[in-house]
Amino acid sequence: MSGLKRTLTFSSLVLLGVGLMAPIIVRGTFGILSQASGGRVPLSYFVALIAM
Predict the structure, then answer these.
(1) In whole angstroms, how large is the CA radius of gyration of the chain?
(2) Which residues of 23-36 are buried (b: 16+ CB within 10 A; e: fewer)?
(3) Dist. CA 36–CA 33, nearest whole Å
(4) Over the stretch 1-37, which tens digit does the pLDDT of each residue have?
(5) Are residues 52 and 15 in contact, defined by beta-carbon separation less than 8 angstroms?
(6) DSSP assignments along 1-49, one per residue
(7) What is the b/e burial string over 7-22, where b = at least 16 CB atoms within 10 angstroms of the residue's CB?
(8) Backbone phi, then psi, for 41, in 5-degree steps?
(9) Percent of the chain that is helix, strand, coil (3-state, to 5)
(10) pTM
(11) Integer Cα distance of 13 and 10 in angstroms
């Protein structure tokens, strides 16, 4: 039986997380996310950290 092999390592997970969060950091820096979330940008990063 052929199939996919799970090969996600911790370093791959960290790089994936940084790659996905990098565009969001720019929006948070300029205040778009901060204004829309009522200043809860750090909480969203923490939730993303726990989810990953």
Answers:
(1) 15
(2) eeeeebeeeebeee
(3) 5
(4) 578 788 888 898 888 888 887 777 766 666 777 787 7
(5) no
(6) ---------HHHHHHHHHHHHHHHHHHHHTTHHHHHHTS-HHHHHHHHH
(7) eeeeeeeeeeeeeeee
(8) -60, -45
(9) 70, 0, 30
(10) 0.41
(11) 5
